[in-house]
Amino acid sequence: MVSDSTLHALLGAVVTVVLSFIPFSPVLGGGVAAYLNEADASQGLRVGALSGIIATVPLVLFGLLLVSFLGFFALGLRGGAALGIGGLLVVTVFGLIAAVYTVGLSALGGYLGAYLVDEL
C-alpha cells in the first residue's frame, strides 16, 4: 500500500510535469505535495524533494529518447560515433542540471507549501 506522503508526492510530480511549460513549475508541484500532505517544514522539504525526484523520471526518459533518436541518425554520418558520444555527454550534463533544478525547486515548493499549511 502506498503511503499518503508518496501519493501526495506523486500528485505534486504530476502537477510539475503538466505545468512544465511554466518556469519554476517544480515549486508549484512541491507546494501542492506539501499542502496536500499538511506537512510541517521538515516534512514539506522531504515530500517536495520526493515529488521532484518522481518528476525527474519523465525528463530523463525523454532525454534518453532524444539521444537515441539523434544517435540513430548520426550513425550514417562521417564521425557519427564521436557525435553520438558527444551528444550523450551533453545530455548527461544537462540531465544532471535539470535534476538538481527540479528536485531543488520542488523542495523549496514543499517548504512554501508547509508554510501555507501553518498560516492557513
UniProtKB/TrEMBL annotation:
Does the record carry Transmembrane helix as a key word?
yes
Provide the alphabetized UniProt keywords.
Membrane, Transmembrane, Transmembrane helix
Domain of life, per the record? Answer: Archaea
Q: Where are the transmembrane segments?
A: 53-75, 87-112
What name does the UniProt record give this protein?
DUF5518 domain-containing protein
Q: Which InterPro entries match?
A: DUF5518 (IPR040493)
* Record organism: Haloplanus rallus
